[in-house]
UniProtKB/TrEMBL annotation:
InterPro entries: F420-G6PD/mer, Lucif-like_OxRdtase_MSMEG_2256, Luciferase-like_dom, Luciferase-like_sf. CDD domains: Tetrahydromethanopterin_reductase. This is TIGR03617 family F420-dependent LLM class oxidoreductase. NCBIfam families: F420_MSMEG_2256. It holds the Pfam family Bac_luciferase. One of its GO terms (molecular function) is oxidoreductase activity. The lineage of its organism: Bacteria, Bacillati, Actinomycetota, Actinomycetes, Mycobacteriales. Keywords: Oxidoreductase. Residues 8-313 form the Luciferase-like domain. Its EC number is 1.-.-.-. The keyword Oxidoreductase applies.
Length: 342
């Protein structure tokens, strides 16, 4: 497995984060579309590093259109010399329509069309073919030479790979059909990945004439890590709170159902509407927390556990820590997993 890390600090910290990540031995550095734009920091990350891969995990696809994604993906791929991954996700209806004021409908089918449109645009730039994408959601039929980048800008590596974020069966199948990789959600347990994600991903790949091995699976595992029991307890509390928040979202209820906690979803949703966050957190029991998250006390033992859980199903593994984790401890875990640590 390749081991990745995430930077959420924005433009002011990304250069330092990228340098530190590359020196530590991480294979990839990802940004998240939260309080900051996910693309701009990666330009600085590319400028200050030489080898580490960079990508968005995720950029909200439906907040943009295929031409914008194709352009920025091409530019970051060119500038980084082939180190960029365009990671896309749908977000949920409320955020797309009310936060971004953009249309929402048939997300799986819309995402399939969006990826196909981006690839059609890239093809017109790389081989000079006529742009003629007429999909159900996106139509791109005009590409004058003035607006076409020089294809030599991506010589030797081509346009970037596209990863899609997916939890439900329909989007997971779409990822298998049209994407180069799948980014699972931190709320997904290893059991969910094995029993729900992988079969649907394989079915999508098969429908497109591909094999499961053609799709990179990326997962960010929730980690409770600390130098003493007090710190570990605080980390587990933060993860419990994050899991309660995720569980209140209907899109993630299949994970609850697989773990025989289907009644928990509506309860968490109702409590979230009332703002009863502490009550929500208390509903996440230890057994469920341990099914999703890994508590790290000894890096060597943790590395064995992570490999036990994810070998054979995950190609890229990230560390999800919804609290201020000690980077030294994370680097120790990276080394135990086989990162260079140099």
């Amino acid at each position: 497995m390749k081991i990745d890390t995430t930077s959420t600090g924005g433009l002011h910290t990304i250069a330092q984060d990228a340098i530190a990540a590359e020196q530590a031995g991480y294979a990839g550095l990802w940004t998240f579309e939260g309080a900051h734009d996910p693309f701009l920091p990666l330009l600085l990350a590319a400028e200050h590093t030489e080898n580490i891969e960079i990508g968005t995990s995720i950029a909200v696809a439906f907040a943009r259109n295929p031409l914008l994604l194709a352009t920025i993906g091409w530019d970051l791929q060119s500038f980084s010399r082939g180190r960029f991954v365009l990671g896309l996700g749908t977000q949920i209806r409320a955020h797309v329509t009310r936060r971004y004021s953009m249309p929402w409908s048939q997300p799986a089918e819309r995402m399939r069309d969006m990826v196909s449109a981006v690839r059609a645009i890239w093809a017109s730039w790389t081989d000079g073919s006529r742009l003629d994408h007429n999909g159900p959601f996106y139509q791109h039929t005009l590409m004058p030479p003035l607006f076409m980048p020089n294809p030599t800008e991506v010589d030797g590596f081509g346009p970037p790979p596209i990863y899609l974020s997916a939890v439900g069966p329909r989007m997971t199948r779409v990822a298998g059909e049209v994407a180069d990789g799948l980014m699972s959600h931190p709320f997904c347990s290893p059991q969910f990945l094995r029993e729900a994600t992988v079969p649907e991903l394989a079915a999508g790949a098969d429908a497109a004439g591909k094999s499961l091995s053609d799709i990179v699976v990326h997962h960010s595992v929730m980690l409770a890590i600390g130098e003493n029991e007090e710190r570990i307890a605080a980390a587990r509390s933060a993860i419990r709170k994050q899991m309660a928040f995720y569980g209140s979202t209907q899109a993630y209820w299949p994970i609850l159902a697989l773990h025989d906690r289907q009644e928990l979803g509506p309860r968490l949703r109702d409590l979230s509407k009332k703002g009863e966050w502490d009550h929500m957190t208390n509903l996440i029991d230890d057994d469920f927390l341990d099914a999703v998250a890994v508590t790290v006390r000894d890096p060597a033992e943790a590395a064995v556990e992570l490999r036990r859980r994810f070998d054979g199903i995950v190609d890229r593994l990230g560390f999800n820590t919804p609290y201020a984790a000690d980077p030294t401890l994370l680097t120790g875990l990276l080394r135990a997993l086989g990162g260079s640590g140099d």
